[in-house]
Fold each of these.
Amino acid sequence: MKPSDITVPQLSKQCNESLILSVLAKGKKHGYQVALEVEDGSDGFFKFNHGTLYPILHKLEKEGLIKGNWKQEGPKRKRKYYQLTAKGRKYLASQKESWRLFMERLFHVLDEDIS
Amino acid sequence: MNHFTRLLQQLNDRIDLAQPAKSRIMLELSADMEDCFAVYLGRGMDKDEAMKLVREKFDLDDEVLDELVWLHKTPVKRWMDRITILSQTRLERIILVLVIIAIGMAAAKTMGNADFFRHASHFVLPMLGIGLYATVHGCRKIFSLHIKKDHDIRRLHSGILLPLVSSGAVLLIGVLGYFWELFKNGDWAVLLSAEQIFLLNAQGPASRHVLYYLVEWMTMQSATMMVCLLICSYLALIWYLLARSAAKIEQAEASYLLYL
């Protein structure tokens, strides 16, 4: 079995990264749209604190998993749109697999505990 | 006009980053705040409630800001930002270097002559001292603005006026020296009528004395005034560049924060 990349100490961070990447896999979005879609998509279960959103977005951009582009919207309004890169798409696929493995192991332990 | 100018200004003060990285973060935050505000209004909240919620949501704590700063302060990013800034003002910098070299060469050519300082009055010494002090001060300020990237709004304009004030002081000393050397002997009447004496009877012994005196004074003052005007121009140029740099930094920050 392939070991999961998900680690318990980094759980929250890795979860947030995966959520952001999965939202961006659907198309380019700006920061607030990402937060809003995560919130709406999870029926309010995952609420993005903006304190965590920007460092993660900027970190993912720095790692080349997402790409930020500035767009002029109106005469005095500029927006930064993020989109998934090919590298990000690959990483997201591997993260999905890692989350599956993580959940399997978690439920394996939980089920044993319950039984 | 942004609805969250105050919060943005507070965040701007707390983000210890150089431009343009800082402006980009502020711009992103500003646009997202406005969107978040619009969404809350769309959900039926009143304006005050929506603004309060947005402020709470976007009031980033120190840990988050430190993380952002850390992310943007890697050596490669710093280098890239410096290159960006250099490319933006490349022409200005080339012109600046050429002007300074031209002034320096003109000054060096004239002042490099040993006779120059022998002829100049003692008034050049305080002028050179002031010029040197203001130049060192100007270099420190340029270092602070462009290398250290200290764009704190409270310190941005501090010390910028000093080269200009120094330039004025040098000019004042030069003019004072001009008249002092002319009238230091107190022989006012003779000197004031020197022109007539020179024109009417340049061959007389008294006239020759005045003539000799005037030529000596003119030689001395041409050297002194040359030093004076060179230092004045040089210091005024330093002031102009510093003031322009500060204004550009301020303008960029203000436009990003308040109007975008």
Amino acid sequence: MPSLLEALLTVGHPVNLMLVALGVGAGIVVGALPGLTATMAIALLVPFTFGMNVVHALVLLGGIYCGAIYGGSYAAILINTPGTPAAIATTFDGFALAKKGHAYRAIVVATIASAIGGLVGVAFLLFLAPPLARASLQFGPPEFFWLTVFGLTIIATISPRSTVKGLIGGALGLLIGTIGIAPVDGRVRYAFRTIALQNGITLIPALIGLFCLPEILDMIASRFHRETAIPYRPQRHMLRRVWRLVARKPWLLLRSSVIGTVIGIIPGAGANIAGMVSYNEAVRVSRKPHEFGEGSLEGITASEAANNAGVGGSLVPLLTLGIPGAPPAAVLLGALLLKGMRPGAELFTVHASVTYTFMFSLVVANIVLLPLGILLGKGASKVVTGLPTTVLAPLVFFLSVIGAFAIQNNVGDVYVMLAMGLVGFLGRRVGFQPGPIVLGLILGAMCEQGLVQSMLMGRAAGTPVAIFFTRPISIVLIALTVLSALWPVLARVRQRHTRDEAAAHIHPIVEEKRDD
Amino acid sequence: MIKDRIAALVLVGVGVFAWIEAQRYGPMSRLFPQVVAVALVVLSLFLFASSFSARSRRAAAERQAESSEGERPDVRGVLLSLLVIVAWTLLLEVLGVWTSSVIAFVALVIILRSTERAAVVWRSVALGVVLVTGFVLLFRVVLRVPLPEGVLW
């Protein structure tokens, strides 16, 4: 109890408050640049904390983590390129809304959802960290395999025009993901004696290429938008209106935040998958699923609440067990160890005051994110929407080039970005969307590892197949997978049934009127 | 519709090639790529077959009508821009990020210009140079990313 009080007082110190704001601001800027992920934001800014005391360093890094995950939504909304992989699902509706002239509205929704999601994630971290961390350790290879299969069912949601093309895109992504060193026996695959391909296709350059280059070329192709690529329509009382709209969906916010937290807790899953799963669930339970992909505010809310909730989630196994839930948390682990703090029971006993100060600083970061995000978002949307295509198209490609390079300081990644961009551009001409390909690419390695390791485990136990279907968490995940895969069919049947019922109601009325 | 068929055939080729190539690997490292390759071939064949269905032909006709209603895309602009983008990427290490980006930026501004008014074009060029310089400095100095310097900068 004294530790909690001490932590509250420490976090309220003006220097700490300033550091949180500074961290959030820096995180937003880095996260908004395509290619610079939250992991890189923390890694790039860790050296600045070497001279600081442990509290100042952690408070700053926590702010950067929250800000960077949220900042990814700016690029997703304004240029259809997720600033961080966590914002992939935000592109589906964010950019559609920007193209209608409502970029700022999309950013405000993303900001509110991110702040609320972030707060829910931190609440879980504060109150339920130890039991949640223990539960996450129940995830073995079969559970990871089913988690990825469940993730792949999202393809049906994100490719409403053609499920077959979505599935082909997913398979292509999975296949591209197998390039490089095999996760189990270390064999190099599909590298064709090229050193650049031996390390595999790096996710971020591929993601930038798939989303960004087709968009640039489309901007160029449409002479209609030659003056300004993205229109801007200012609206009066925007904040109040958007707040009312978001506040009307408390269940959506809560559900997305809980999904984000839970997936964030599972080591290796992270915010990338959290946003997608949450988006899928939002479409599944929505009364207006047809609006998703066309600029739905619910879509942005679901994705952003989940990915920011994943921040708190990813810190649960980190602080309690020393296992990072996501790559940015792994960099934070390094920073903790540098400061002489070993994750585990020690953090909650010997260093309790510092640990709780860090947790409370995340609460402050998510509160600070609201005004700062809205302010920076307004500026960013005005700048981007004011740029003519002649400047915006080359600028976006320039940012893609340096973003892809900065991942590993490797020009090979720029070539990967370009190649994947061409694949994305040609694919788009034929009706293939980048979402399923990226989803396959993200889930591929985890899926393969889960499959092969489970088979090895099963073979050792004499039950090579049964191991996939007999573990309790696997059974839950299988049920979720079947439900998610069948949902589009069930929804269509339900829709038809409702239509028939409505028609049956109208006919008697029409006939009665005719009788009159 | 024809596009779908060509894409399906290309993807069947990719799947078959991936399956054959995977046979060279060990049992553990070929299992997953082969499963995915089979899925890719089956789905692509399904896409190929379904492109002959009446429903697919109707959808293709609707798409065709939609695209003919809109303005014709600037194919020349896209091809020229692609050429610049590819050259930009290949010259990164040779000329350096700043030089190659400024040259490519200017080339794209000229290709994409919607007006012959020199003042407007110059303004876009100037804005481009300022933005490229600003971001190169941000990455090199503040974020300490060693962007390629090449023979120039």
Amino acid sequence: MKRQIRLALLMTLPTIFAGTAMAQMSATEIVKKAELAAYYAGDDGRSAARMLITDAQGRKQMRQFIILRKDQSDGGSQDMLVFFSRPADVKDTVFRVVKHTDKDDDRWLYLPGLDLVKRISAGDKRTSFVGSHFFYEDVSGRNTEQDNFTLLSETDSAYVLEGKPKDPSSVEFTRYEVTIDKENFLPTQIRFFNAQDQEYRHVEALKIETIQGHPTVTHSKVEDLINGGSTEMQFRFISYDLGLPEDIFTERSLRTPPRQWLDLKD
Amino acid sequence: MKKQALWLAVAASLTILPALAQDNEDWGDDEWDLEAPSSALPFTGFAELAIGNRVVGTDLNDALTLGDARIRLERQEQFGQVHVDAKVDGRYDAVLEDWQGQIRELSAQFSLTDKLDVKAGRQILTWGTGDYLFLNDLFPKDWQSFFAGRDDEYLKAPSDALKLSWYADVVNVNLVWTPKFDPDNYLTGEYFSFFNPAAGQLVAPNPPLSAKAPNSDEWALRLFKTLGSTELAFYGYEGFYKRPIAADEFGMPTFSRMRAMGASVRLPWGPGLFNAETAYHASLDDKDGILANIPNSQWLFLLGYERELVTRLTGAFQFYLEHTQDHDLLLSNSPAPQWEAEQNRTLLTTRLTWRNSTDDLTLSLFAFYSPTDSDAYLRPSINYRLDDHWHMSGGLNLFMGADQHTFFGQLEDNSNGYLRVRYHF
């Protein structure tokens, strides 16, 4: 009898282990799929974007820009250009990024007043993107290799995953919970927790639209739950697979914006 | 009287403009304003009040080093394939006690072929890898603005030039032709005193120093290419020294001919960015270094490194060497050898920049120090962006040196502090 139980246990163990392995696999798989859905839709893309920044005192600021993106490979390197049009003091400033997954991104900033192409050294990507509550990393995508993921819960419509940094000293959070829509694999909510396990930063997709077959977050909001303040970001005039030429993602476009690709139409 | 009128006008515009420029900060649902300017005004720009004062008094100049009431208007238009850019400054300058107008940009930009861009007219031009150090960037600088604490933008003076840019797989080429030589806005004595070797002392001439600029043209060339993350460039220049450091037969300051060639590289290295640049400035009017009134040829070298030290704090370091050719001859022919720079003049610079987490406050400290000249120049500054319209800046320009004749040492009496308030519209 005892022996039979032991045998039965031995026989079920592999299944249990396999089950755990599958859950882990699927957490990573979900995250990879979410990354592709959120940051790699189409082979290239263009969008107008604007941010409404509200500080803790309720004062409002605005940023408006056009983003051009081209993927070198799905889930791999990406070329990006960000052309600022508002407010007046950053008008005509252009930000160029070559996002790498295996090394630091290459970043340049064009300052029109000085005609200066300023190269920016690699830095903490969890710092404010042009004065907003979004981080550089929120805009370009956090490398999924930097965190370990586990599946916390699952409903009919969404997965809730927990991400824990592999190098906790490199980030300000100890963990985050990300809700990923099962249908389109877009992250719809991210809650960041600090060392006291208090939620201090909240990112939420407020509106999702399907554009050329790609479900796309067109309105999102990030809130600073400790100091107050939030930033809303809206995207419009989105198009994918425009066939953006590779050679516009160069220094030339900083000084001479490729106007034929910046002419927006719905 | 004029002065008061202008301060009043600017004060008034600082109150009226905000009302006119009230844009839709609450986001109407469809107010994207993709084409239209962001306000009711047909142009963008800013109004600025800037004031600066000497830290210590001097007999040579007034205490005031900066007194600008400035209006900037900017407008861009697209005429078919031609993009036209206009930026105009008007200011009352309380140091000069006069009105000053300047077109900073009036250029037309278009593509001749899909690989060839043309930009013609008044424009700001910059290239090279140095931070406040220019080896191959021989476009005009405005040192008076730089030392007075005007916005960094004003360090670059505009050129009236034709710029051709050709982009090819092998290499990219910029060719800039300036029909009439554009000198730097060098020290004239109006804002700042300087050392005059002929007089053997500090001077602030009145009428101000004004060297006649040659009527000839200038050529500047850059070949550049990016290989992976590495940026390579080669440079050429044919024209004149940008400051009147030569003397004519009457001993008056003048511009002598110069040809430059150089190269630079910039690439990520470890956690930061590394850059190296070199240039050879050939003194065409004194190739052998014999003439006492003409500068000798020089080799220039620059090494730089920049990295984020901790989150939002960036540190940068530069080593710069200026090697004068035929230095022995220079000394033996010089009327004042005791005031000539050493054969190898070195300069170290550091830049520390800190930004707060909301990215609206920037503290910066730029320091030049020359071990060979025993002089230094410190530029601490603070910039605060109150909102999309109001910006405030303050800082110091502190010069110090063991001797009166060295590059920064001569400026010791010009050490100043400044404050600027700007309203963008």
